[in-house]
Design goal:
Elements (H helix, E strand, L loop, with lengths): L2 E4 L5 H8 L3 E4 L16 H6 L3 E5 L11 H20 L5 E4 L9 H17 L7 E4 L12 H11 L5 E5 H7 L6 H9 L4 E3 L2 E2 L10 E2 L8 H11 L3 E3 L5 H14 L4
Parallel strand pairs: 1-2, 1-10, 2-3, 3-4, 4-5, 5-6, 6-7, 7-10
Antiparallel strand pairs: 8-9
Helix pairs in contact: 3-4, 4-5, 5-7, 8-9
Length: 259
């Protein structure tokens, strides 16, 4: 099973080695910025590595937004990151599900997602799959609750997106983790990546605060069961240094059933 961590972008392969990881996830730029990602000097090394690479899109991206000053640059930035991810041999670009404003019908958010996927196809940004990630909070979120996730997939499923399941987000959103993989698979066709995170907050809190495995409100064995059921790579986005993340990775590997 491929297990790894979200790491600093400076030297992700070195960070993977420090953690005993065979998967890494990182940002290609400022997660709170709108700047187009620059080509990486280590692109050849990343493409040739046996470490699986996933790229997380900037948090500012909200392709569902009814505000065209956010929506249009969001889809442009998503495409730029998708192309940059392809240039380094990444296996997926993780993009948060986004949200609409309180006075906007959420169906507009789903339609805006479709327009973003159409734009990505028009721009030839389809080499790397866009992995929609479920989110923790917000009454107007497109991918917090799985009923909305299903409505989103009705609009974008034909474009072949993937799904990134975050355990902390699902817990905080009030989604039952006991059958979360089965329900996600029924909607999206599968899970492409698990964000294996404990939660500092209680069930249905709506708060996105990650904890190291065993330090929060999710039983670590439940997280391991989710990874096993999903049958896909997993990364921890947990606090602390390489030693802390290494401990999370080791816990997962120890508890995973034999392949």
């Amino acid at each position: 099973m491929r297990i790894g961590a979200h790491v600093d972008a400076t030297n992700p392969l070195e960070a993977a080695a420090e953690r005993g990881a065979n998967v890494v996830q990182f940002f290609l730029g400022d997660p709170q910025g709108w700047k187009k990602p620059e080509p990486r000097d280590d692109a050849d090394a990343l493409r040739d590595s046996d470490v699986d690479i996933f790229i997380h899109a900037p948090y500012v991206i909200n392709v569902a937004s009814p505000n065209n000053r956010i929506r249009v640059p969001s889809r442009r930035l998503m495409v730029q990151h998708a192309k940059a991810a392809a240039a380094i041999g990444a296996r997926g670009l993780i993009v948060h599900g986004g949200h609409v404003t309180k006075d906007t019908d959420i169906s507009e958010g789903f339609s805006n997602w479709r327009k973003a996927m159409e734009y990505a196809a028009e721009q030839g940004a389809t080499e790397v799959p866009i992995l929609v990630e479920n989110t923790a909070g917000g009454a107007h979120a497109c991918a917090r609750h799985f009923d909305n996730l299903a409505r989103l997939w009705e609009r974008i499923g034909e474009f072949g997106p993937g799904f990134c399941l975050d355990t902390c987000h699902a817990h905080a959103a009030g989604e039952d983790l006991s059958d979360v993989v089965e329900r996600a698979r029924a909607i999206t066709g599968g899970v492409n990546l698990v964000h294996a995170n404990d939660s500092r907050d209680t069930f249905d809190s709506g708060r996105d605060r990650h904890a190291n495995l065993g330090d929060g409100h999710i039983d670590p064995s439940r997280i391991v069961d989710i990874i096993a059921a999903a049958g896909c790579p997993a990364v921890v986005e947990t606090p602390g240094d390489a030693a802390a993340q290494s401990a999370d990775i080791a816990l997962i590997r120890k508890q995973l059933p034999p392949a």
